[in-house]
Amino acid sequence: MRKPPNQTRDLYAVEFTEIDAEELDEDPWILTGPKERKLLQNIEERGVPLSERSEAISEGIVSGDNDILFVELLEVGEDLTKVRTQVDDEERLLESEIVHPLAMGDEINRYTTPSAGMGVIYPYQESADGTTPIPEDVLEEKYPRSYTYLDEYRERLSSRGSESMNYPMWYSLWCPREKSLFESKKLLTPDICQYPKFTIDEEGAHYFADTIYGLVPENNTESERKFLLALLNSKLTWFYVYYTSPILRGDFRRFKTSYLEKVPIVPEQPSHGENDGESVDKLVENNPAEALAQLGDKLTVLTDRRRSLNLALLDYLGNYTEGPKLPDLGLFQPTSSNILDATAEDYENLQIESVKTERDGRRVTVYATARYKPEDEDEYETDQWGYTETDYREAFTLADLSEQEAALVKAFVPVTVEKGNGFADFRDNATKKNSLIDRLKNITLPDPDNVSDDIQRYIEVKQRAEELDGKIEKTDQLIDDIVYDLYDLTEDEIEIVEEAVNHDY
Question: Which stretches of 47-197 are DSSP H helices?
């Protein structure tokens, strides 16, 4: 049975702060330290609310029945689109004009051109009254395939709603939003984030579900979109969001229109391409808003390139020939005893949680973390299941490896542990007779000679990915520096921001 917490010790660990009663007015309360509150006030004074620079900030579609109205896109054609309907797992051809790519929250990533594996059947049209349902007779005549499919589920669709939820037509969506919103060029963000994930739909082609918020700038130019993209993905903006939006489990934050629209945006305007050809250094001096726009564009290009690279090692190895056990390659060098030498008799439910490898020329050292259930949970930092995890501990080193062998070990061991479940003869749990190091030593490697060309191709792609990661990190930092200058932050204020949000990146 879990012991009650040490309440005296827990109280000593609590930090207290004073908040002036005048600050607890009808606006949402910001319950944080005085330095953070003062900085938030300074940020608000330097900018104007995002709503004043936006034509629309909106949550996405609520269908009322996703299984019927959200479909998997298989092949998009000019006239017909092949889909798989979720409700019955059938493949169908529906009219492309009312089946639109539908972005979901888990598909949106910062500075990444959006892609959609899903679609929405959107039986709406633009009229003098805005976005309205297509009349049923028109839907049946003009879109017979889609109508026939929907009609199969007429009874189910018709039974939706209540006295407070009225669907205008039996095939209506509960919250269709405005067609013009989806078909505008816009910024998108998931509704739940652990760090900023804004990106741009530059084609105005993506509809989006209610797990996404869309933002259409009032001055909807390419420079303005990319300026806002860089600014909203900056650490300073995340600092503001971090302290002013709802907190969810896991330290996630949830965006809502009422929170997004208050984000302070500096009044500076990008030059809309008038400074083309100028270096970023020159733009930072003359027009920092345009510099942000160009850097936002650069990061999108770099991030798309980075995400296009396949770093799945097993895809390169294919159906390889098995080779030696891990300790039989090169010279096995044990390390001093630590928890990785323990067995299940020493620690309850002992297992390997994660592994990393470090290479030094012809030597590769393997490190692992151990996860187990401590006898006294109150003496350790534990997760919701009562388990604790150690820092990385050295397991062993393989020395005197060839170039290809060292590359293989460095890449293959972490992948094996992540895949687990007996792959390459690896199991992550200790037993009464097998320690965690025994489990690692039992890994069966591919035959180095059989996969040497595959490993070389993987190494080349990985090196390219690391180059891009370095450029992305450098560009991200430059954006943050420009944003700090735009908001006139002091060195002390920058330190407050960095300490608050660095762990989220």
Answer: 66-69, 136-142, 144-152, 154-158, 179-182
